[in-house]
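Appendix B, Record 12. Input sequence as logged:
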Amino acid sequence: LRSEELEDLIGKLDNRTASIIKMRYGMEDGRERTLTEVGKQHGLTRERIRQIEKHALLELKRMAHDTGFDAAA
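Logged structural output:
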């Protein structure tokens, strides 16, 4: 996926989930945040952040497949 394609897919997630993914992978400022850091920012436990992240990554993979983006690129 190109970065523009990835941004488009992330934009289809709900705001909270998109924010969590962007924080975890440093997409906002280049700094990857820990589960604990993201949890504090969102008022959630690190376990709940992990669950949301896992679900979001599966959803992004599904959306990439459905839209014909090559997830391996």
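The chain has one domain: 3-66.
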